[in-house]
Design a protein that fits this description.
eight-stranded mixed β-sheet, Pept_S9A_N, single chain, alpha+beta, Rossmann fold, globular
């Protein structure tokens, strides 16, 4: 593939152009009928003409999806370099990817993908053997013919003799749990079905705790799931006899409930949340028969969880009275907040701790970049960990008796590399470094700070080839999220190597609403402050243009899920600012998002249209679906979603695409790409990921005016 992009002399999207270019005038969109659906919000009526597309089980919706995909793929197939992009993505993706090893019982386990396998394979070897002796333990590629059934979680008993693993089919959040004898790999008992948003936590070898909702009436992919429950499954008994541990009454109505057993099997810790932020936390002594739950904290205005225990001494991570988080200790006999004692106090940087090998590892986020400190169980600082560079780390977790730990390091130009760490010496060495066909030394990432609309300084990391001239000509992908306390820290993307190789710039803005600077940063981008997030993103685009990294006709904006909302809001508020918009699995109907699946749990960030007239008006004021206006020239738009997305249901994307197609002015195409047997993103097969990126990059370059790559 050539390394220099050759722009067309003039952006060739007109009917008179050669090479089969397509545009708004030559594209004939499938019919999207309009119906007389009207909702009343307080004293205001709002039309919803594409309400019928919310029915994911109807023949009409199925035919609409087929017709839209037929048009979209016909368009994409005519882009001359789409196949070469796919070929290059396939080449660069084809390298061995190995996960960090972990010991369970007599074996050491690890995951490995040879390169292009749809799902990673799990291997194991005896602890006294060499890794070269490893044998296949579980191969998810055999779970389904097309690779769309994926591993979604693994939980071993403390002695490693039993395994409960969960699978996802077609990308759905609904899971099945399968129990194995780890030695023989024989299945034990029945498969546990209809499990959602759940881990699996063993109680000795007797059974395990898991969480789920009652199976909804109607479509399991879109119907509302509003009450999460914690169950206990006794090994050797049918699922119908599983014991309800917590939830299930109107007084205890929670949207997210989880249960975990401490490593010593002494305590059951239960977290119950009404939304994605804030939780009630309870503890139950499993060594005492008929013991009751005791509240550690009974309010929902902070996030709190138990990270470790030493006998009855609990170590608790919390942002209560500590927006950047801290660790406190307390005795389980009286675990309430008034008895907490600071163990690792709050600092000016956000804390994300882990434990392993008898130590605490405090990862701090400093302007979205990792720093790690090691503490002992008295709270004394052992050392600052010397990291391989400026970027993001993950890991440092393990059993208390582990003699070595593993962590990963990555940034935008460094593929994820696994390091072996000796905690008693503080020594790191490379354990596994990917051998990827990408010249990392030819690229650079620089962090800048730019000013948002209200004067707030926002960090952004910009990655590109070394030595480029800032002349405003470079195709640029601006990515953002800005919500749910989620932080965008530097990470390597195999797909983005192809964007960078072709002269592209990749920029990631750390918007308010995320967690980069703690709870205050998060809360500055929620509910009736949500516009701050969009203003931050708009300011990022303006910065890239003003500093001549790019220009508006060479700028694409991209984001997924809450980031899809970000893209939808930005393109409807400032359609002039970018040439291409790429909203993925987006929350795009802000008046009805809370009526689908677990959407009501997002109200901490968004509020709902039912809260008050003021909240309704605020949501309607930026809801992407409701702010598409007739006669406006919107950027070239490729909406992407999955037909099995039961987190952000595809109806958001369906309705948005239909509305945009009906009102788009000018020559820019408005297309929607609907992946089949795919959900919100997790577990997607490698083959589908590669094809999707080839389509996204081809669409983007093509609509920026590039005739060839």
């Amino acid at each position: 593939m050539k390394q220099i992009l050759m722009p067309i002399a003039a952006v060739c999207l007109l009917a008179s152009c050669n090479q089969g270019e397509k545009n708004q005038n030559t594209l004939t969109y499938p019919e999207s009928k309009q119906v007389d659906s009207v909702d009343a919000y307080f004293d205001t009526e709002v039309k919803d003409p594409y309400r019928w597309l919310e029915d994911d089980r109807s023949d009409e919706t199925e035919e609409w999806v087929k017709a839209q995909n037929a048009l979209t793929f016909s368009y994409l197939e005519d882009i001359p370099y789409r196949d070469s992009l796919k070929q290059r993505l396939t080449e660069v993706w084809n390298y061995e990817k190995i996960g960090a090893p972990f010991k369970r019982g007599d074996y050491t386990y690890f995951s490995k993908n040879d390169g292009l396998q749809n799902q990673s394979v799990y291997y194991r070897y005896k602890n006294d053997e060499s890794p070269d002796e490893a044998q296949v333990f579980l191969n998810p590629n055999t779970f389904s013919e097309d690779g769309t059934t994926s591993m979604a979680g693994m939980s071993f008993t403390e002695d490693g003799e039993l395994l409960a693993y969960s699978i996802s089919e077609g990308g759905s959040d609904w899971r099945k749990i399968i129990i194995l004898d780890a030695e023989t790999k024989e299945q034990l008992g029945d498969t546990i079905v209809d499990v959602k948003f759940s881990g699996t936590s063993w109680k000795d070898k007797e059974g395990f705790y898991y969480s789920s909702y009652d199976k909804p009436e109607g479509s399991e992919l879109s119907a509302k799931t509003d009450q999460h429950k914690l169950y206990y499954h006794q090994l050797g008994t049918p699922q119908s006899e599983d014991q309800l541990i917590y939830g299930g009454t109107e007084e205890e109505k929670h949207r997210y409930v989880s249960g975990s057993v401490t490593e010593d099997n002494r305590y059951l810790i239960v977290s119950a949340s009404k939304s994605t932020s804030g939780n009630r936390l309870m503890i139950k002594d499993l060594t005492k028969s008929n013991s009751e739950f005791v509240d550690i904290i009974d309010t929902y205005d902070s996030d709190v969880y138990v990270i470790e225990n030493e006998g009855s001494k609990l170590f608790i991570v919390t942002d209560k009275d500590a927006p950047n988080k801290k660790i406190v200790t307390v005795d389980a006999a009286a675990p309430q907040a008034e008895n907490w004692v600071d163990f690792i106090p709050e600092t000016e940087h956000v804390l994300s701790p882990s434990t392993g090998a008898g130590y605490f590892f405090a990862e701090y986020m400093v302007d979205a970049v990792s720093q790690v400190k090691q503490f002992d169980y008295t709270g004394e600082l052992v050392r600052d960990i010397d990291l391989p560079g400026v970027g993001s780390v993950g890991g440092f977790g393990g059993k208390e008796d582990a003699d070595v730990l593993y962590y990963s390091f990555t940034n935008y130009t460094t593929p994820g590399t696994i390091y072996k760490f000796e905690p008693n010496k503080g020594i790191s060495e490379v354990y596994q470094k990917p051998d990827i066909d990408f010249d990392t030394e030819a690229y650079v990432s620089n962090q800048v700070f730019y000013t948002s609309k209200d004067g707030t300084q926002i960090p952004m990391i910009i990655t590109h080839k070394k030595g480029i001239e800032l002349d405003g000509t470079h195709p640029t992908m601006l990515y953002g999220y800005g919500g749910f306390n989620i932080s965008l820290t530097p990470s390597f993307s195999t797909a983005n190597t192809v964007w960078l190789e072709n002269g592209g710039i990749y920029a990631v803005a750390n918007l308010r609403g995320g967690g980069e600077y703690g709870k205050e940063w998060h809360d500055a981008g929620i509910k009736m402050k949500k516009q701050n997030v969009f203003d931050d993103f708009i300011a990022a685009a303006e910065y890239l243009i003003a500093e001549k990294y790019t220009s508006s006709d060479k700028l694409a904006i991209r984001g997924g899920s809450n980031g899809g909302l970000l893209v939808g809001a930005t393109m409807t508020q400032r359609p002039d600012l970018m040439q291409v918009a790429l909203p993925a699995v987006g929350v795009l109907d802000m008046l009805r998002y809370h009526t689908f699946t677990s959407g009501a749990g997002w109200a901490y960030d968004y509020g709902t249209s039912e809260d008050s007239p003021e909240m309704f008006e605020y949501l309607r004021g930026y809801s992407p679906l409701h702010n598409i206006t007739e006669g406006t020239e919107y950027p070239a738009t490729l909406v992407t979603t999955g037909d099995h997305d039961d987190r952000v249901v595809p109806a958001h994307s369906f309705k948005f695409a239909a509305e945009l197609q009906s009102k788009q002015s000018g020559n820019n195409p408005t297309l929607i790409r609907i992946e089949t047997d795919a959900g919100h993103g997790a577990g997607k097969p490698t083959s589908k990921i590669i094809q999707e990126y080839a389509d996204i990059f081809a669409f983007t370059f093509y609509n920026m005016g590039y005739e060839e790559l």
